[in-house]
Amino acid sequence: MQSIWSFPRITRRAGKVWQRNLEVFLKTWKVNFFPPFIEALLYLTAIGLGIGTYVGAIDGVPYVDYIAPAILAIATMNSAFFECTYGSYVRMYYQKSFDAIIATPLSIEDVIAGEILWGATRSVISVAVMLPVLVAFGVISLPFSLFAIPLAFLGGLMFAGLAMCFTAITPGIDTLNYPSFLLITPMMLFSGTFFPLAVLPAVFQYVALAVLPLTHLVALMRMATLPALGALLPLNIAWILVTTVIFCIVSINLMRRRLIV
Amino acid sequence: MPIIIEAEDLTKTYKETVAVSHITFEVNKGEIFGFLGPNGAGKTTTMRMIECISPRTSGTLRVFGMDPDKKPAEIKERIGVVPQETNLDPDFTCAGNLLTYARYFDIPPAEAEKRVENLLAFVALTEKRDSTIEKLSGGMKRRLILARALINNPGLLILDEPTIGLDPQARHLIWERLRLLRAQGNTIVLTTHYLDEAARLCDRLVIMDHGTFLVEGAPADLVREQVGSEIIEMDNTPEVIACLAALGVAYETLGDQVQVATDASRELAKTLLDRCKKSKLSTRPATLEDVFLKLTGRNLRE
Predict the structure, then answer these.
(1) Which residues of A touch B88 (CB under 8 A)?
(2) Is B263 a domain residue?
(3) In this predicted model, what pLDDT tens digit does every residue of A202-237 receive, in sequence order?
(4) Which residues of B are less than 8 Å from A97 in CB distance?
(5) Are residue B190 and residue B260 in the same domain, yes or no?
(6) Which ipTM did the prediction report?
(7) Which of A252, B68, B183, B205 is the most buried (most CB within 10 A)?
């Protein structure tokens, strides 16, 4: 049996799976583009302006400006994670799409790579829809905020790979709720999103930096939108790059183990 | 005659169970080759190994002369697969399904459009071109899957129970299309539970059970060799049994019936009518079903 660490053979055919998902997405583009737009508005008004009135500023940054990059990072995480958990699971298990595709020259590695690429693309789309809203509110600065787009792709790959690991081992669609509630929701709150990690005990900060992927993505997004370079920039980038590679490789091998018997 | 599939000692083991055990066979170009057997006999596993989606445990396997472990993409480019389970893409229309599938085979869009129209006509679904999958009947779905399997002009078509759950009209349409494809030089491998289907379609077939082949040959030859040309059916009463035993005729009891397989039904029937007077008696031609039940037994599987 192949090790879960072995480097999978992926061909350019993976792009055809990406293209299939894009076509399906574009068929219902109106309902698909709406949620990130609304989400940005809701967060900005409720948390940014509502709570922000009491908070005032954090480290000299107006509260609404402080959370704006977090909104982008959370959207990046949610788009890729939910696409490659529930979305991929439905295509794999209920629609049998993967079975149909691997009867063609595509391999299972191509299929999963295409799904992960698509998950990252969903992140990019969400962030691209949110950016104009944030610009309109004047809470992020151009042109550096445009870095949010490549960051969304990179972060999207990371969360799509992570999601695909869960999809590969979940016994059923219901058990995908565990990573959603036990990992994604806490991450959304405790990754330096709505308040600085510095207010928490030191141990929390170290845990967040060590194991919560969103921490690093929020930090990078914030550097782009303020814009202001942070001291941990190299660590943030290295952490995301390394885990992205690990998640993607492991998820493809786990999926192969699940589907090729 | 070129050989399309060559398998020697082909074996597939899942953890504890042996699904396919040391089977050896060849499929020639232009023939329809059938795999018959009860549930769990290893038919689908064999198909999956040929389709390059399930790696073999041991033995050799060549499809178009290539090893599925080494050249899966090259082999898959040249085969068409009709799986047992309907796995059409519900996110697309009928034409959309075929066009998306064409892309997986790198067929240029203009050529794909042309093939899609031809194939929809071939399976009599032109009117359903823009329907979604959920609006199709079971028979239409199977026909669309057949069309999808043909999108790459495959030299080898693999069908896993192609007519499962279809009404007679739909089955006949599929049979007719398969014969047409054979006439065009295609090689077809299929599994089926319908023995009349196998008898009608297959040039050669194997009957499998517990992962091994029980017999191999042309349907008519198998019937003649294994059973005889005809079956005499009588009531299962003590008198009939005693009479048959007295005559030394081999028989098989099935519920309220006794069956006698024979090559000389007329003479035997006359003798039986004279000697075993108290029974109704009828004769019918022996079929592949008689061979199948004789070889695989009558116990329910799974």
Answers:
(1) 100
(2) yes
(3) 999 999 999 999 999 999 999 999 999 888 999 999
(4) 87, 89
(5) no
(6) 0.90
(7) A252
